[in-house]
Amino acid sequence: MKKEVFDAIKSELSYIGLLFLTLMIIFKIAFFKENVIVLLRVILSLFWLFVLPGYFIMLYWHEKLGFVERIIIGTILSAGIIGTFSYYLGLIGLNIKYHDILLPAAIIFVGLFINLRKT
Amino acid sequence: MEKICLAVFVALFLYIGPGTIFGHSIMHVFPYGYYASDTFQHQVRADAIKDAGNFRNEAFYISKGAENIVGHYPPLIYHISIIFSYAAGIEAYDAIYFIVFFFAIVGITIMYLIIKDFNRHIALISLPLAIIMFTYPLLIGFTWGHWPSVLAQSFLIVFAWCLMKIELKHSFVLISIAFSSVLLTHTSEGVFAFIFMALFFAARFIAKKLNRAEIKNIAIAMSISFIASVYYVIIFMNTWSRTQPYTFLIEPLWDGNPGFYIANFGIILIFIIAGIIFSSFKLKEMHTSIIFAFAMLLSGFLNYVGFGLRSFQIRFFWPVYLSVFFGFGIYMLLKIVFKKWSIAYTITLSLIFVLLLMGYPKISFIPSYTKSESQGIMDSYHWSALKWLSNTEPNSKIYFFYSDIYDQDAVLRNTKRFHYLIDRDSFVNAIQEKKIKRYYTSELPGDSGGGIITRTGIFSFEDATTKYPQDYFFGPQDICKFDYIVLDKPQSDKDIRIYNMLVASELLKKNFIEKKFDNEATIILKNNKIGADCIEERSF
Hints:
The complex is a heterodimer of chains A (119) and B (540).
Chain A: H1 2-30, H2 36-58, H3 67-91, H4 99-117
Helix pairs in contact in A: 1-2, 2-3, 2-4, 3-4
Chain B: H1 2-21, H2 37-52, E1 57-58, E2 69-70, H3 76-88, H4 92-118, H5 120-126, H6 140-143, H7 147-164, H8 171-185, H9 189-206, H10 212-238, H11 240-243, H12 268-280, H13 288-299, H14 308-314, H15 318-321, H16 323-337, H17 343-357, H18 380-389, E3 397-400, E4 418-422, H19 424-432, E5 435-436, E6 439-443, E7 453-455, E8 461-463, H20 470-473, E9 474-478, E10 484-488, H21 494-507, E11 513-518, E12 522-527, E13 538-539
Parallel strand pairs in B: 3-4, 3-10
Antiparallel strand pairs in B: 1-2, 4-6, 5-13, 6-9, 7-8, 10-12, 11-12
């Protein structure tokens, strides 16, 4: 099972890379006055916060759903999870400034863990 | 081919939406493209949460000076934006606006996926209708600050997708994430999600597709959603529900707002109606996209039974929700003529509607995109004055003399200080009477939507405003009791400029008043002897 999951991830890494490049081009068209470094930072953040955690959440259903569908749905669901956990973590005392590192990492880890344990 | 089409549409929406409104940049030196007070309301709250590190309480400068006011706005939009602001290294005011636009576009693509599950051709024909979302009057959803509603509706669309996929193993995970996100972004959209859910299961029941596993899935999903959102829902029930309870009211027009009405679709409405008629023939095997469109059409008309503002907000996404009727209507009508359909027809039709809806050519009875390019109500001069004030002593009190920009009073919260604003009528009277005064009728601006409420226990809440006299919020204020006095010099209004500068020169006659800040738009004076006679009342 582990091998199957890693194979799926490996085969889709190129799609993720292609998506990154496509978004970079699209963003450069829409925000043509913006510095490339800023655009790169914005897209990297979108990937780190929403696209990658979303990908790992949706990996569970990779046999039933196509890559494009999983990546789009995963992106917005990841925003929902991150926003919700951030609210509660803030309330229990973990300052929001740490959430951009911790939450996506935790979601990616949990997503990977669940997929590896999937029977 | 399909993926390329989707990428082209995303590029188009990004270009005409955030691209145009943001002046084709992401980072700005001041809140850019902010057109109304509510935009600043959300921006200031995001900044306040960023400063506090959490959203336990509202900042005092948002709650009319009251401390320990429970954070009662649905929190999700602020948290996502602040995290994004940290990660991308951009200001919260740029981050929150970007997030709203970005996820609206993600929502459009999800609606495309839902319709594609019904019919790929219809999905592609439907997509151009979303262009209308990025032009007035619907653009006010973004530029006037209906941001939580707009973001919640993106989650509402993903909720519809999740229900469509209810047959997936463990689909309750997806449904619960989507539904709790709706509740935590703009709770009232939860009602519309319920309307859709009721129609969805009714349709499945009629079609004899509803089974025990699905009922179990939805029950688990609702339970998880309840657990995930209950802490906030308790706050919501004791703030928003208490101050803005449901009342039956027929409200055909959206008072004070350029609302979107079904007739605004123009000739497009013919295709939408055709789609509705064709859908009615398929009542027993109705696809999720059609049920969702019916649910949102109905939700958008609940202004006739008391949902007022909330229903008008649903209409921001009507071009997306109802696009399936539009695409279905055209597709079925043309199928009468073209028996053998091909992808070439679909792409040609999609392209034709992109051009028409973009205004090439502009036809009066077809709603079309109109470029809206303006920096909004903020400018760099006022922004630097507000930033300067936010660095003054934390307990300083600020008094604002009149200027048009301050009429959108959430702007003033960027001082992050306790502040009063002169009442417009009192100011105009003073000019007309040619009088310089020490006491002006003034208001204490702040956000009282949802009340100014303190949490005293898990289920107990108290109105924090009752301990203050009425004139604390609106009444005469002694300008000599303030640490800083802000006087604008608007170039567009000579009377305001002359009066404000006259007051400034009168104040500066006292040796304990000093000019601390001065630029093209504003002058800020500091009173070093609070309570002393700082101005000579006289006529001029």
